[in-house]
Amino acid sequence: MTSEPPISYAAEPAAKTWQDHLILHEFYGPLPLEPRRTPMRELISTLLSHRTTHRDEELAYTRMLETFGDWEGVMAAPTTELAYAIRTTRWPDTQAPRIQEVLRRIKAEQGKISLDFLADWSTEQGLEWLMAMPGIGLKTASLVLLFNFRKPVLPIDTHVHRVAQRVGMIGPKASAEKAHKLLLDMLPPDPVVLLNFHKHNYWHGQHICFFTQPDCPRCPLKDFCNYYLEHYGPATEEALAATPSHWNPTWGELQH
């Protein structure tokens, strides 16, 4: 699937990480680094997305802006009414005051509700500033900085974390926060590479490397994945030959 020489199950984590990137880059196809949404929408939508489906997140976001008009309206809204508008999220009563506090802090510090200033800040400054906000952790901060400002960071969500552990890119006890640095240190500081690594492994966890009953026969990483070796033994020539070379859209729609 790639021109790189094959690696083994015993390969070092850095070699597995790069091979994972090369194979999934071909399997799912390359992605350009273009903002999918405005920085403010990226930030607030990611807050809304916690333990929530993409459909329900989008519904909550749409209702919120339709009800209150703009960020100023959301910030000034009665908190109970905001919670009702975002009721399709997992924890609306928790998220509503958080969103309003985030908006108030941005307005107080920047004079307007905008994150455009982050383009001129260093990666470290941006991470520190965002993570000081209520409800914003490393994953959310990294998503905003990578997707909107091309900063060399790597968001680690549950799907990326699961794939990385099963393949052997990180250890079985490495937390998602620790994985952020471990994987980042093994990849080039190229925002396009980091975006593709994030998205491809995110999709892989969604559609093949499930939490329960992963679809290992369909997986293109089986010839160096620790999980495959443990459950199936070394990949046979027949198993490798039967592996699809590219994502088939009929298996399911790739989400954002």
Average pLDDT, rounded to a whole number, is 93
Percentage of β-strand residues: under 5%
Q: Please tell me the total number of domains.
A: 2
For the record, the CATH class of the largest domain is Mainly Alpha
Q: Order of helices and strands, N to C?
A: HHHHHHHHHHHHH
CATH architecture of the largest domain: Orthogonal Bundle
Could you please describe the fold and organization of this structure?
The chain is mainly α. The protein has 2 domains: 13-32 and 155-250, Helix-hairpin-Helix base-excision DNA repair enzymes (C-terminal) (Endonuclease Iii, domain 2, Orthogonal Bundle), CATH 1.10.1670.10; 39-149, Hypothetical protein, domain 2 (Endonuclease III, domain 1), CATH 1.10.340. It contains 13 helices and no strands. It has helices at residues 13-28, 39-48, 54-68, 71-76, 79-85, 92-110, 123-131, 138-149, 158-167, 176-185, 191-207, 226-232, 237-241.
Give a quick summary of the entry:
With 256 residues, the protein is mainly alpha-helical. It has 13 helices and no strands.
Could you name the key traits of this structure?
mainly alpha, Endonuclease III, domain 1, single chain, Endonuclease Iii, domain 2, 2 domains, 256 residues
